[in-house]
Amino acid sequence: MRVRYMAVVETQYGDYRFHNRLAARWAVFFDVLGVRFKYRQQTFSFTSLENRQWTPDFHLPQFQRDPVHDGMADSYLSVLERKPSAWELETGAHLTECERFLEHVYFFPRGVGESGLECYQLGNQPAVTACEFAQCPFCGTAYIGQFRAEDGTPYFNSHSCLEEYEFAERYDVDVAFLDFTGKEDTFPLPTESPILQIARSAAKAARFDSQDSLAVVRGMRASAETLREHRVFASPEVMHWLAQHASRLAADEHCPRFENQPYIVHAKHKRSGSRTPCPCQRCREKTPDVSTANLSEMKAPERQM
């Protein structure tokens, strides 16, 4: 039986020349999705792995960002036409361990927009968890959700954005109970947002040697941008489920109530652009009382008798 390999065809798209069509299609996906990326611009060297070197295909700077806690993490993706090798998994897991999990490493051995594998170190061995691109229905941030290792059910945890907290505040429910857990058969996933669907379709339909095809891709990118401007980040089914889910939680007397925590107050003040001092407890503890600070300056100098 003869094994057929996909021909390697260097492809120009945007500012990069990609080593094959698969990488170029992923670039279209990121472009339409509105995710900044860098292509093969960083090579990691690991002295503890016999000076092993590894260059991931894509670097997504500050891809997973937490607008409430001001946290961020970079993501590195390798897109493959096969399953990742043991060498690749070991190398990717070692990177996450060296950076104390501040870097996320993913391998996508299937088509554009399909599920992939997140790689990390578990004890002395590399481990993988199935993952998939999703979009926060509240703020529109693209992120990568996981599937539970024990049963393979999807798990898209709380994104912790300010818009999500405001949604929880509206229904007076604890934001932790808004996690997408996939426990119900009718549970809608945030992987089917309209913008994600457009990005997948654009990547699969792109013909890089056809100007007409590239014009269609530009039109699809403009459509995705229009949805972002109008803040359409989820299908009507997802938003309907969220409203029903929050209403059920609000009616449950055992559900913890919403708490306006200091970092939420801080995020709201930061978004408002106000130049007044932040009223959250954390900032008030760091900033000395102005009246007390000026009191010492207003004291008259002591006279020398």
What does this 3D model show about the protein?
The protein folds into 2 domains: 17-257, no CATH class; 262-288, no CATH class. The chain contains 9 helices and 12 strands. It has helices at residues 21-33, 86-98, 162-171, 194-205, 211-229, 236-251, 262-272, 281-286, 290-298; strands at residues 11-13, 16-18, 38-39, 44-46, 52-54, 58-66, 71-79, 103-108, 116-122, 125-135, 142-147, 154-155. The strands form 3 sheets. The protein has an 8-stranded mixed beta sheet with strand order 3-6-7-8-9-10-11-12. Strands 1-2 form a two-stranded antiparallel ribbon. Helix 1 (21-33) packs antiparallel against helix 4 (194-205), helix 1 (21-33) packs parallel to helix 5 and helix 4 (194-205) runs antiparallel to helix 5 (211-229). It is globular. The model is unreliable at 1-6 and 290-305 (pLDDT under 50).
Number of structural units classed as domains: 2
The proportion of residues in beta strands is: 15-25%
**Biggest sheet: strand arrangement:** 3-6-7-8-9-10-11-12
Instruction: Provide the succession of SSEs.
Output: EEHEEEEEHEEEEEHHHHHHH
Mean pLDDT: 81
Radius of gyration: 24 Å
As residue ranges, the low-confidence spans are 1-6, 290-305
> Which geometry do the CA atoms define?
globular
Our measurement of the CA-to-CA distance between the termini, rounded to an integer number of angstroms, reads 107 Å
Helix content: 25-40%
The SS-based structural class is: alpha+beta
DSSP, total strands: 12
Please report the number of helical segments: 9
Largest sheet: 8 strands, mixed
